[in-house]
Amino acid sequence: MILNGNNIREAFPILERSVYGKRFVYFDNAATSQKPREVLELHDTIYRNSNANIHRAVHRLSAEATDLYEQGRAAVKRFINAGEDGCVILTSGATASFNLLAHSFTARFVGKGDRILVSEAEHHSNLVPWQLACDRVGAELGFIPVDDRGEIILDEYERMLDGRVKLVSVAQVSNVLGIVNPIREMVSMAHAKGIPVAVDGAQGVVHSESDVAALGCDFYIFSGHKIYAPAGTGVLYGKKALLEKMPPFFGGGDMVGTVSFEGTTYAPLPLKFEAGTPNYPAAACYAPALKMAEAMRSDADVFHEERRIVMFLVEQLQKINGLRIAGLPRDMGNKVPVISFSVEGAHPEDMALILDKMGIAVRSGLMCAEPLVRKFSDKGLLRISLLPYNTMEEAEFFMECLKKTLAMLKAI
Amino acid sequence: MNTRKPEEIAEEVVAEFSVFDEWLDKYEYLIELGSSLPIIDEKDKTDDKLISGCQSRVWLACEYRDGRIWFTADSDAIITKGIISLLIRVYNGQKPEDIASSDFGFIEKIGLRENLSPTRANGLVSMIGQIKAYAKKYEC
Questions:
Q1: Ordered structural domains, chain B, with CATH
Q2: In chain B, at which end, N or C, are there fewer CB atoms within 10 A of the end residue's CB?
Q3: What DSSP line would sit under A55-96, residue for residue?
Q4: Domains and CATH numbers, chain A
């Protein structure tokens, strides 16, 4: 399939709809992606044709459903290049993955007085689970600072990597700033001191490299629904050597070896961490979803068009008086199409509300990253986030509508 | 004091909004209304006057004089300011019992509730709740 702006769009039926009788422009992709036809069809087919609980029964449909679920896992392994030393645990989302990791990792490896490092630019999902876990074991959280541009201050980071640090957990791309962080470098710095690294790939998996072997990280977490799979899908990739030492998080069905009233032994990886019936029809959809993602990211035209749109938006936005973009890296090659900004004299909520009535879906507010957003604006920010099915024409239309919006709000 | 009952003023508001068939025009109008809001005194912009459930910050205060309630408010978002000024226009200078017994049905009639984002709609419900709570406090 040769991809271009038009036939990518054709693969996503929802993009044809209108809102308030106007063309629909979806610029809230960092919250969730739309789904291609193949994903919708597989999800539907499973419920129509192969629905049975997985990993349990001996009957035919259970075997079919189990195969489909495991094919979903296999697709994830290929997509992130997980080697023999790694393991893909399927969860309900990145938030669930972080809660699992925070709970089980700290239970085994973190004690009183130890530290875990996150950056100042984390989504609440890579912050609150660590606060909870640290409280439980008496450890403390350290915050790797970002500068005014939104870039991680690497010198500070390196200084913070002392003997007390048991784990670094950092976003590959912040959901607010849209800057690709130097993960490879950060991993080597931490590994030089024997400290493992977890990476929040929720945005990075869509907009940056997802090759865990190349990144070198010990854990990699993302949500399937942000990369074309249905809601209720998430991944925790981890190095087996670490995962094997960690206790389970949830107990229940499917995660056990033998159970007696005196005690229980656990199933081998990954099932040890997959208690209960997972959302197997959704997880099976990783196969078509990641095939779509792969097709898009291996297409040079798609890549160049996206770069052109990012540069257009950043340049046009900066021409607006009083507009300030949160997240402007020194090297604009590291800026992905996740662009947050504030405008003097205009509340982001007002902007989002008016843009909605013009048919454009954007995000406003604190974006689940309150400490970071407050650093840039106490009223919150407006965020636009694009995927390859968005077009330059939509970007131009957005700029037109934004100017009209600001005129209505008397901000320009 | 207000010589007209809330229902009468509400009807007038509904009639005004009925001339707009585009939502953007309704927003323009709300933005305009925001400038007529009786602004809360800076010293009253305290946390206990903040209405929860809004994405933007909204303060609402009231004063009870001669058997009637007088509101002042402010918000850092301009459309929210318009919405609160709409509510105040209907309920300012009314008797507590008239406010407490009002069904706030005009909000539905101008299509405000279902056309707001979920976060904003929650905020609207909270604003109405706060106006009613003040009224109940002074009801005899």
A1: 6-138 (3.90.1010.10)
A2: C
A3: TT--SHHHHHHHHHHHHHHHHHHHHHT--TTEEEEEESSHHH
A4: 5-30+299-408 (3.90.1150.10), 40-293 (3.40.640.10)
Average pLDDT of span B104-112: 82
**Three-state DSSP state, B71:** strand
Q: What is the mean pLDDT of residues A199-222?
A: 98
Residue A258: pLDDT above 90? no
Report the range of poorest mean pLDDT among A66-70, A303-307, B51-55: B51-55
CA–CA min distance B92, chain A (Å): 25
Q: How far is CA B136 from CA A137, B46, B96, B130, B139, in A?
A: 48, 21, 7, 10, 5
pLDDT, tens only, A26-60 = 999 999 999 999 999 999 999 999 999 998 888 99
Contacts of A38 (CB under 8 A, 6+ apart): A11, A288, A291, A292
Confidence of residue A254 (pLDDT cuts 50, 70, 90): confident
Choose among B56, B78, B119: nearest Cβ to A409: B78
Q: For an interface test with B, which of A28, A342, A344, A353 has the most B Cβ atoms less than 10 Å from its Cβ?
A: A353
Chain B residue with CA closest to A411: the answer is: B78
| Helix (H/G/I), strand (E/B), else coil: A402 | helix
Residue A9 near residue A389 (C-beta atoms within 8 A):
yes
Which pTM value belongs to this model?
A: 0.92
